[in-house]
Amino acid sequence: MFNNLDRVKDISLHNLVVGAEEAASWIQHGMTLGLSGFTRAGDAKAVPFALVERAANESFKVNIFTGASLGSDIDKLLSEAGIVHKRLPFQADATMRKHINTGDHLFVDQHLSHTAELIRSGVLPIIDFAIVEAVSITADGMIIPTTSVGNSTTFVSQAKNIIIEINVAQSEMLEGLHDIYEPADPGSRLPIPLSKVEDRIGQIGIPFDASKVRGIVFTNNLDSPSPIVPPDEETEEMAQHLIGFLRHEVSNGRLTNKLAPIQAGIGSVANAVLGGMINSEFEDLQVYSEVLQDSVFELIDAGKVNFASACSITLSQEMMDKVYGNLEEYRDKLVLRPQEITNHPEIIRRLGLISINTALEFDIYGNVNSTHVSGTRMMNGIGGSGDFARNSRIAIFVTKSIAKGGNISSIVPFVAHVDHTEHDVDVVVTEQGYADLRGLAPRERAELIINNCVHPMYKRQLQDYYEEALTRGGQTPHVLEKAFSFHTELAKNGTMLSKEKALI
Amino acid sequence: MFNNLDRVKDISLHNLVVGAEEAASWIQHGMTLGLSGFTRAGDAKAVPFALVERAANESFKVNIFTGASLGSDIDKLLSEAGIVHKRLPFQADATMRKHINTGDHLFVDQHLSHTAELIRSGVLPIIDFAIVEAVSITADGMIIPTTSVGNSTTFVSQAKNIIIEINVAQSEMLEGLHDIYEPADPGSRLPIPLSKVEDRIGQIGIPFDASKVRGIVFTNNLDSPSPIVPPDEETEEMAQHLIGFLRHEVSNGRLTNKLAPIQAGIGSVANAVLGGMINSEFEDLQVYSEVLQDSVFELIDAGKVNFASACSITLSQEMMDKVYGNLEEYRDKLVLRPQEITNHPEIIRRLGLISINTALEFDIYGNVNSTHVSGTRMMNGIGGSGDFARNSRIAIFVTKSIAKGGNISSIVPFVAHVDHTEHDVDVVVTEQGYADLRGLAPRERAELIINNCVHPMYKRQLQDYYEEALTRGGQTPHVLEKAFSFHTELAKNGTMLSKEKALI
Question: Taking every annotated instance into account, which residue ranges of this chain make up the domain Acetyl-CoA hydrolase/transferase N-terminal (chains A, B) (predicted)?
Fold first, then answer.
């Protein structure tokens, strides 16, 4: 076995060590579980697996609350086992997605900064079991998380029972990387004392009530690596347009070459766009984000980024080996915080972030759909994009202008689901170009977006829509009966392209 | 004349006193003006009037930036004079609305907390003239505002030129009521040190660079009174449902009878709903809002509210006489702040506000339209509703379930414009009842909204839509080709009610 009692430095807890099956057996139908894990990093692994095994012979359902998406196929296995009642606040698994879209799971798509508040205030069900991964438990009673913090601080502080998974595959050198801070309840809450990206405001571990610890389980499995999607021609063009926009800001005196702290969402597009900064003139950069992907470490290695704050680290296998194999080189440039702090409006506004997130589609007035394919089918969830977009200095959304070989235009007359309103979206970027929407009225925005961002094959079709809309008038002209025509055509004919308009 | 040089305590400024016509003559075509004024309170009056007069013989256009809506028909007169190029961040005038909806004015509908940031960062055009109403100028160089603060602090700090309108109709007793604080630029910005509703964190007046003052104009006109719309049966029912919801929160231990600091939007519905608390068991209440209407003073008089913070005071003639005639009685219970502070996400989240705002319409999944009639025609603007809804402890939206004698249902399948997404809306209230959407998946929300909030005459029609949508599936089921059918039916037939479904 890989039990290593040295990792549990509070020896009074040694008698709580159990196997994952036993721990899983305590969980009953109707309970709510708070699992560690954020973007495939730092997820509790052993007890969820054991719970899935139990489901082979037993029928029960539980609520699954996490930081964000889980790795190690846990969301997939939970879904297939049929034991998920309600899931929040985010997921990114193809199988779970199917169960969500049939209505089999109730999925609550939540701003990632909101979940902790809703748990503490008693709006969400009480957490029956917090199940959190750790590298160790300190002698003075703190849980040292692994590669993410997520909502674990709040799960541990609010749960009736705590199960700690000590993952011996993770280095004890992670101790000291985390900065744990939980705001007091409103009414007695003070300012969060963080005013620089690198500030440390809390403790190195999660404090806990030892009397609530039901079990300690040992595990020995690393996080799932992030799949590597190399940049392609379009993502490189998007990166260049984004850099062009930032350069324009610098030349207008609104930014310096140090830019402002950067947030970049999860996913290959944002990763590629961030990676595109390596060969730019920008320097002494800082990252204040929710997840650190490969590109941030490439920027650190290139001497472009001098500090990065986030809630989780999600890397490719190659980068994982490099970073965790040389943690001593990176640790003074990194801090991991609870998602409530990485995504907190107070901090985002104070630091004046530049936020870069991926859109599924946006419309001619700048509303963004981040979540729903064709307006109805959930992809992953809003994640932190709303936390950042609303409060950042510059809210940027990126997407390729077309998808499915051109059958889908990512720019439509009216997005079929709104996650970010026209009030919150500053700049949109495709491989065609960017549109800086700040300070523009809707009619100005429509012209700029159609001119700069739309793929040539859809330009005329969107122009025709907009011109017909103008005959109807209004602050935000629309032809409501045709507003979703791109989407309904796609459903009917397999393409948004109308035949007569395809000729450019 | 009503010039009263005693109001200008810095005597070095006495030689700058001019008439409004002269001050207006300095303004040139293409300039950007920053006018004081927020919800009909504290607006610069004389220079805008003189500018309108100039337009009788001269053709020019200017950008008009304000705190929010202006009183004294200024927005109407500016529109009629044809001198408005771009207007932001809010208006509420019927004539201006027409010019916006024909595309004659470019209207930028902005979160009220964002404008100051966008001016300071140089994203919006430089303010050529700040024109702000004041009760006086202090000997140590501060402008004491009148009945609103709005964006005046930032207009004054950022403008190339400043014109001060000393309104002698306003009592000098207003001095000491204001608390002026402007955040430093991001990068060197510290926490805003406000953690109680009644905290004072700044100065009693707006500091200014005397070398930028071009003129001082005397005026003698009070603010426009707010029209009195007495509560009706529906608003009283809405108030009772809202109180029922709050009572439920208290009985579940999530609030006490002191509730939490309350924000209530402008308008007769929010005013009536707030007024409904007078006969409730709630006590020791505090208000942290952007505007204080009659109901707040009624609650103060009734001993229910012990402190109120806002950015402006907008009252009926009767209440104006009472409050300004007895300011000594109220002044230790009031503070007026810049709208950047009243609406700041940092403060709203820290204080844990209960926010109550008016919706034009909401949909079966909880998305809210606050601004666009039939999705295209601007009503007033989003105002502060987004600042509050996104960050408050409980975001409540209220609206009557039907309008225009039943030809319009305020609950529709898909709102024709989204100002507040499903992620940001906690509770919706109509005279039919309330739906608490917190922690619910879209399908749960739809059932609750249709059951609790929809008018009986539209219930079957919405149920039919939802049932058809369920056959299509998805996280958020929709029949996209019928999603706006309520709106297109209204445009075609003058009613959203379909004939075959009207029979209940």
Answer: 16-201
DSSP A496: S
- Check CB contact under 8 Å for A349 and B345: yes
Residue-range domains of chain A with CATH: 5-219 (3.40.1080.10), 233-456 (3.40.1080.10)
Indicate the SS3 state at residue B403.
strand
Q: Which residue has the tokens 């300012």?
A: A191
Dist. CA A386–CA A343, nearest whole Å: 9
- Residues whose CB is less than 8 angstroms from the CB of residue A498 and which lie 6 or more positions away in sequence, other chains included: A461, A489
Considering only alpha carbons, which residue of chain B is nearest residue A489? B481
Kindly report the nearest CA distance between residue B189 and chain A, in angstroms: 6
pLDDT tens digits, B95-150: 999 999 999 999 999 999 999 999 999 999 999 999 999 999 999 999 999 999 99
B358 with B397: CB under 8 angstroms? yes
pLDDT digits (tens, 9 = 90+) for B383-439: 999 999 999 999 999 999 999 999 999 999 999 999 999 999 999 999 999 999 999
Terminal-to-terminal C-alpha distance of chain A = 67
CA distance A207 to A201: 14
Asked if B443's CB is within 8 angstroms of A254's CB, the reply is no
For B356, other C-beta atoms within 10 Å of its C-beta total 27
pLDDT in tens, B338-377: 999 999 999 999 999 999 999 999 999 999 999 999 999 9
Task: List the one residue out of B88, B124, B122 whose CA is nearest residue B106.
Answer: B88
Closest Cα of chain B to A498: distance in Å?
16
Nearest to A101 by CA among A440, A422, A410, A379: A379
According to the annotation, is B269 in a ligand binding site? yes
Residue B74 annotated as part of some ligand binding site: no
- Write out the two tokens for A156: 């541990």
Question: Which tokens belong to A330?
Answer: 């990176």
Q: Which helix (H) or strand (E) holds B277?
A: none
- Nearest-CB residue to B393 (from A108, A186, A352): A186
Q: Do B484 and A487 touch (CB under 8 A)?
A: no
The answer, yes or no, to whether residue A504 has pLDDT greater than 60, is no
Distance CA B335, CA B23 (A): 31
Average pLDDT over residues B240-252: 97
* Min distance B488 CA to chain A CA atoms (Å): 7
pTM: 0.97
A residues 360-419 lying closer than 8 A (beta carbon) to B = 367, 371-372, 374-378, 382, 386, 390-391, 393, 416-419
Check CB contact under 8 Å for B475 and A109: yes
CA-CA-CA-CA torsion sign (B461, B463, B465, B468):
negative
CB-closest option in A103, A421, A483 to B419: A421
Q: How many CB atoms lie within 10 A of CB A358?
A: 22
